[in-house]
Amino acid sequence: MDETPKPLKGIAVPSTPGLLDGNEPIVTNAATVIQLGKALFWDMNVGSDGMACASCHFHA
Fold this sequence. Notes:
mainly alpha
């Protein structure tokens, strides 16, 4: 049995009602939120072990 994790590219991202749409969306500037997420993913100061998420999850 193959235990190798499969790539996430084929998995659809679930939608969160109200996140980007609706009368009062939580996110009003998606590009800024994406930039923040990428910065946090690569930041070594975010985690408790001094490692960036990208250190282990680069292929995600």
